Amino acid sequence: MSIAITTQFICFTVLSLVVIIGALGVVLLESIVYSAFLLGGVFMSVAGLYLLLNASFVAAAQVLVYVGAVNVLIIFAIMLVNKKEDLKPINDIKSRRVISTSICLTLLSLLIRVDLTNVWRLSSPKNSIGEESTIRIGEHLFSDYLLPFEVASVLLLMAMIGAIVLARRDVMSKDISTGLPVDQELIEKSSEPLLTNKN
Amino acid sequence: MEYGLDLEYSFSEFLKGFGLSSEIAHIIWLPLPMLLVLVAAVVGVLVTVWLERKISAAAQQRIGPEYAGALGVLQPIADGLKLLVKEDIIPAKADGILFTAGPILVLVPVILSWLIVPFGQNLLVSNVGIGIFLWIALSSIQPIGLLMSGYASNNKYSLLGGLRAAAQSISYEIPLALSVLAIVLMTNSLSTVDIVNQQSGAGILSWNIWRQPVGFIVFWICALAECERLPFDLPEAEEELVAGYQTEYAGMKFALFYLGSYINLILSALLVSILYLGGWGFPIPVELIAKFLNLPINAPFIQVFTASIGIVMTVLKAYLLVFIAILLRWTTPRVRIDQLLDLGWKFLLPISLANLLITAGLKLAFPQFFGG
């Protein structure tokens, strides 16, 4: 075994362990903040796995989109609404846990079955494209994957408009979560400039 | 354009002389450029801290550090030693793990980004194909470190400071990336080496600053905002706020933030010089001078000479920009948080988008000037 293959194997093992343990931590930890930070770690290790597969552009995009945007947004949301409130205890928590565990195990067994039955076309390192992949991804995005790419952007636009409607409560007269009428004075106050002009 | 002394080749040949295999020679070679870049970054920070002290003193008609070494050059080392031997305090109610991990997450991406900074044709740690995109991706990790340290301090001011710092660096990342994209469009490559080579045609005349003046200004403003330098140092705002997310930090953990912000400043200056000011290029192309003096371009002594000129030019341009940043810090007032976010989202973002569109149009119209 050459040094390059050994390094690759060690990196793969470490990254996979981080992905699996981190993902378990995201689900099982009580503290939601820890879960969010661990999620960032999982995304980073997935980017590392992409790097091992010679897909450096995908790895960088993974870091930029999932760590830099999605995870930061999640942490932002958690920190802005991190109220210490006692949640109502759920009565049949045990049976719910049993049901969700069995569903997850079923999905896992399905994935394992797909993994075992599918014949994977492994490309040899000789015909891997490596650095050229950036160009190849661009070509695909503008030819055969054009429609999904554009539809994804429409989806993002819809999400953005929805977020603006939710955030600007003056659009609706009732609060969505509580059903109470919106305090319009508060909204007017928030749209005033911070400093009044003195001229 | 593939010429130059191959240091790695000669190094591994040298080691093979001792009977080592080429793989082991490669492994011994690997850490050397990394260490060199790390040392260069830290020395760069020391120089910048000294410059900051001296220039701020001059701007305020003081003398500044004077007794530690000639002209106070040893003052930054004294500062660093002081921070090193200070007590490492973790507040009792703070979250110990996140409190320690925060500063590390701020510093590590910045240092990793030095991977792509070229000081010459072959003088960089790794000429990765995704080059400048790697830097954009890595710099997007930093807000997580800021949020982490703000949260872990278990202090309202720290949390708010962390949120503000993260909001700032997120909103300035987008115009930054868009102005880089315009350069990439002209170069047809993400690699920093290609970006410099594309500007090397006619010396100072072919630098990107003439073709991308708007992009240059947008990039510089955004880079200053990413480094949290005045006029954009709202997260810290030393005279007004309680130092934001750094409030609870002391000793070496604080020093990591400090180091991170200065390394980031130097890195930004280096990247501006690479993207817009011709990188290692001399204002008059070195090849032209060599041809004029009838010297062979591939001779070893000329190679060493051009390589050192390249390093000197890169560092000189970067430190000129660092000088401007320091001068800006001590002469401009701070913007307010709403002005800061307005500037980012309502002014720089549309301008950089328009710049990208115009660049694309000009590239189609004049492919010989704007990269075909």
Query: Could you tell me the mean pLDDT of chain B?
Result: 85
Mass-distribution shape of chain B: globular
Instruction: Determine the most extensive contact between two protein chains.
Output: A-B, 27 and 29 residues
Strand content of chain B: under 5%
Mean pLDDT of chain A comes to 83
Computed Rg of chain A: 24 Å
Gross morphology of chain A = extended
Main beta sheet of chain A? none
Q: How would you describe the overall organization of this protein?
A:
The complex is a heterodimer of chains A (199) and B (372). Chain A has helices spanning 3-28, 32-52, 56-80, 93-117, 133-142, 146-167, 184-190. Chain A is mainly alpha-helical and 199 residues long. In chain A, helix 2 (32-52) packs antiparallel against helix 3. The longest helix of chain A has 26 residues, at 3-28. Chain A is extended, with a radius of gyration of 24 Å. Chain B has 372 residues and is mainly α. Chain B is globular and about 65 Å long. Chain B starts with 6 loop residues before the first helix and ends in a 7-residue tail after the last helix.
Summarize the structure.
The complex is a heterodimer of chains A (199) and B (372). Chain A is mostly helical and 199 residues long. Chain A has 7 helices and no strands.
List the helices and strands and how they pair.
The complex is a heterodimer of chains A (199) and B (372).
Chain A (H helix, E strand, L loop, with lengths): L2 H26 L3 H21 L3 H25 L12 H25 L15 H10 L3 H22 L16 H7 L9
Chain B lengths: L6 H10 L5 H8 L1 H29 L15 H11 L10 H17 L18 H9 L2 H11 L3 H32 L4 H7 L9 H4 L1 H14 L24 H25 L10 H7 L7 H32 L5 H29 L7
Helix pairs in contact in B: 1-2, 3-12, 3-14, 4-12, 5-7, 5-12, 7-8, 8-11, 8-15, 11-12, 11-15, 12-14
